[in-house]
Amino acid sequence: MKYKDSSLTIEERVEDLLSRMTLKEKVGQLNQKMYGWDAYKKTDNGIEFTEAFKAQVAFGGGMGALYGLFRSDPWSAVTYENGIPTHENAQIANKIQRYIIENTRLGIPVLLSEECPHGHQALDGTLIPTNIGAGSTWNPELLEEAYSHVAKEVRSRGAHLGLISTLDILRDPRWGRSEECYSEDPFLAARMTESAVKGLQGDGTELDKQNKIIAVLKHFAAQGDGEGGHNAGPANIGERELREIHLPAMKAGVEAGALGCMAAYNEIDGIPCHANSELLTDILREEWGYEGIVMADGVAIDRLRMLAGDYESAAAMALEAGVDLSLWDTAFTTLETAVQQGKTSEALIDRAVRRVLRLKFTLGLFDQPYTDETLSLQTVGNASFRNVNLQVARESAVLLKNAGHLLPLNKKTNIAVIGPNADQIYNQLGDYTAIQREGKGVTVLEGIKQISEGEILYAKGCSVRGESKDGFAEALAAAKEADVVVMVLGGSSMRNFDIQFDSNGAAIISGNPTDMDCGEGVDLADLRLGGMQEELVKTIAATGKPIITILIQGRQHAITNIVDDCDAIICGWYPGQEGGQALGEMIFGDVNPSGKLSVSLPRSSAQLPVYYNQKDQGRQLDYIDETASPLYPFGYGLSYTDFKYSNLRLEKTEMALEEINNGQAVEVSVIVKNIGSQAGAEVVQLYIKDLEASVTRRVKELKGFIKIWLEPGEEKKVNFHLSKEELAIWNNKMDFIVEPGQIRIMAGGNSVDTLETVLTVSQ
Length: 763
Fold this sequence. Notes:
By secondary structure, the protein is an alpha/beta fold. The protein is built from 23 helices and 28 strands. Strands 3-4-5-6-7-10 form a six-stranded parallel sheet. A six-stranded mixed sheet has the order 11-18-17-14-12-13, sandwiched between helices. The chain has a five-stranded mixed sheet with strand order 20-28-27-22-23. Helix 17 (383-396) crosses helix 21 (579-587). The radius of gyration is 26 Å and the shape is globular.
């Protein structure tokens, strides 16, 4: 049989195998119906397969993919007691493959797909800072290194696909999945998406099948622009907004070689993404040349019944639009019936099956379906990954305020550490987090204790969202005894076993007492800190003791009511397992802050939208009762040293349109000098504003950034290049072109404080 002959091309093998398949077997390859944790049970004799798993294999004469075999969390209810031990992961993955290969007619291996939005969501999986913090590093090279470790962990366990959030652009921080977004800006998100693809899959050459996995980028597209900040809410935007803001990250992913993407739950201008052929076929495949698979989001195809009426019609709608592989849907299990009813064609099924099979051949599963069972022991949680993870946490934290240079503290300072997020490791980890071993990870309190040479007092004070003030007295007493107070506040995406879950795993929190105020299905109307946190700050501030506030959060909380009470503020986001050490090092000056905000911080929910790249209306936007400007702008972040920008120059102040269209780039340079007393890293940011255009432009748009290290007194010349890709706009005819006219060029350490010059593009 040709498909088993490794000397043939992948295309030849795919076509031979496809020609041998029955319609039932083809449909089997398009289904990922089963929750992986339902495929096994832990018994006295070890891990055994369930009858449900065997029935699922028999249903399609094989299985396209099995989701979440190693997933652990309150939704799956997988813990260390009933889950697959880490050292047995590869062994069980191999048993899954062996069963399917030996108990089906054609022996087609299965894809094992796993969640890894910020590290592998599995027992003992290494969890890095969530994306909103990762984006704040402005360091794609560091992130690529981190994701390469994630790939090794996932692959060493025997899995092949990594589901990773990279495509959502954060336009409304009320959205519970804000933590999964790299940025409010498409350029920054696109660069981080490239790093994720290269880290997980490699450099685009032949896949390293032992250390790399397929990146399944999610969610495509515009899910971060949901109406009202609601999860999966409609994105009421036009094509220009879609292309300018929400598509660049996926385009960058395609160019980096991504072979997987997941369609988004939302609709765009009335068309659900799972039924949007213009998005999934015309743009993704025909315009960009994408050759990977499109996976459905959980039960999203079933939701199309609102339009289609029944499962068969919903399946036909998604298949025709370009969805290849289901996720827990009933609809795709009815595809054989849909063909018989004339609602879809076997040709469309063949199109999707080819894509799934091509991925399996690319992964080498037909030639070597089994994983080295010793790899995970040396890979999962190794020291090298921990060091990289620590560095990501260090660079993701953003210093927002440092009045009187309170930070860094002397290590002999007596400190009161107060707040609901000071000593709760789960509150540092974000959503999509596995059950943790006792003692794993470093909390902020522990990180401070590890470095401090003074007395450390601790009091929780209050919970994240509870209304009790019972802990105030203890917190007040601790503050009075200390020289300085470190308040660790913010939010939490910590799920617990009392929470109810939707069919796709999203939390249903209505009526349930919980501190969870972020994560999938957890949207906020009011962005102020929850519960009694603001009142706790006011109570401690009344002591007159200096206050350092650390925000542990998955979204931008509005801290206007407490900002004046705090002498220093650090936004730590959800900093991951090593976050406590990283923040402790920062407080005492062992690490100089270098993070910059990947999103604008609003003053209140009523200001929204507050993202920096709004359309220029030719006038100052404000409210009677509040300024429209953010509390802290996009790209902002302080250091323990100071940087001076000078000599912003264009190599040519005028370029002909023909030159740019022929591939020439505009060279921009700026001098950056460290004028402080400490060495530090600075993110040099480049923005543009098209001053003469056929369509309204944004106030400014990020088009370049470089993170540099400078010793005290050192200066560097930083160079950027602006090509057609950065200078072009979607014009009034929806053509992507550079238009003649003037373009303002801006460079600086954030989106507000910039030097400016002007480029003229001549006809």
